[in-house]
Amino acid sequence: MKKRAIFIVIFCILTLSGCNALKAIAAVLQPKKQPTLSYYLSGSEAQKTSLHDLFTLLEKEKEPGPLQFAIVREISADYIRQKEYGRLVNFLHSRVAAQPEDPYNAYYLLMIAYSWTEQDAYAVAALYFDAILKNYPDLIVAGQSIHQACLNQLIGLIKNPEHLVKYYHQLIERFSNNIDLGLTYFMLAQAYEQIGEWNSAVKTYAQYLSFTGTIIPGFPNADHYAKQLVDFNNSSKDWTFENVTSLVSAIKTALDSGNATRLWQYRAKVNFFARSWAQENTDDSGMADFNLTEFMRGSRISYNSALDSGSNASEVYLRTWGWAQYSVWYLCFRKIYFPSDPEIHGRWEWSGVYYGEKF
Predict the structure, then answer these.
(1) Is 13's pLDDT higher than 50?
(2) Which residues contact 217 (CB under 8 A, 6 or more apart)?
(3) Does pLDDT of 249 surpass 90?
(4) d(Cα 349, Cα 338) in Å, to the nearest integer?
(5) What single string gives the DSSP state of each residue in 309-339?
(6) Which of 344, 352, 340 lies closest to 206, judged by CA?
(7) What are the structural domains, with CATH classification, of the chain?
(8) What is the tens place of the pLDDT at every residue in 64-92?
(9) What is the distance between the alpha carbons of residues 331 and 258, in angstroms, rounded to a whole number?
(10) pLDDT of residue 291
């Protein structure tokens, strides 16, 4: 059977679970007639001789045990070096089928899964990794947990966030001493976000923030992102407006009155920023807690009648001028993205200030 045809048949039985699926796949892969020893002898003459010697030793080891396991590992390693993945799969499937109680079967199935990843059959490999977790006790080989290896592989292969939540939880609950907990909590929170479990996501981000110095590949602003969500979740949120029109109107009224205290009451009480356009969005070194009165004293603050042309559906800018420092400020208003609270989600806040003219 050609490889493409085999893959099609395998994908058709992916709806099966656990051992049933593995047995079905094994039935597809195994030849109608059991291969002879000559089938398993591949490679150069030296490699064939080595494999012949290993199979002779294996034949003498009737009962599963450490010696039999060592021989099987060496045969498997030889096939991997030769990239003979078809022979490897057939060989290991025959071992599992012949000795279903072998305590090393989890490792053999792991090697089968590995062979499928090397052939880019990732869905089939994931089926094996998942079945090992569900149906076989953990096994420590060379100081490494088979179950942890399966979880790590599944997290790299699976895109379904509901499954990822399950796998990350298992890593944390079972292997917390062997993993980067900060990284794992962040990725778990990301998976929660994807399935809409916002309360769980925020709680998990809070756990992530307890681990300082964690590097999240692909998320250079992870700390800033998580902190903003957690801080906003824990805040009163009583500064928000139903729509941007009413928010901007209130801001303009406060500017017209010259009342710094009233104006400052409209700002976001958490995550408010004050920075120049050149600063990074995660740079919180600006004067977010400055005394606004000092910047308004003795001067009337003016503003454009219309919002800045660079505004969009979720973030708008109002150009103002006459401030005691930098003169020109752009007030930034943002639509709130916070699905965990439907009453707040979609409202607007005065989120910060950009100093100076836009580039």
Answers:
(1) no
(2) none
(3) yes
(4) 12
(5) TT--SSEEEEEEE--SSSS-EEEEEEE---T
(6) 340
(7) 3-156 (no CATH), 159-234 (1.25.40), 244-355 (3.10.450)
(8) 899 999 999 999 999 999 999 999 999 99
(9) 16
(10) 73
pLDDT of 24 above 80: no
Rounded Cα distance between 133 and 150, Å, is 7
Structure tokens of 183? Answer: 């990284």
Gap between the terminal Cα atoms of the chain: 63
Closest CA to 69 of 32, 102, 34: 102
Radius of gyration over every alpha carbon of the chain, rounded to an integer in angstroms? 31
Q: Which of 260, 262, 267, 252 is nearest to 320 (CA)?
A: 252
Condensed to tens digits (0 to 9), the pLDDT of residues 138-153 reads 999 989 999 999 999 9
Residue 112 contacts residue 93 (beta carbons within 8 Å) = yes
User: CB-based contacts of 110: which residues, under 8 Å, 6+ apart?
Assistant: 128, 129, 132, 146, 149, 150
pLDDT value at position 14? 45
Q: Which residues pair with 276 in a beta bridge?
A: 355
β-strand pairing of 273-276 with 348-355: parallel
Number of Cβ within a 10 Å radius of residue 93: 20
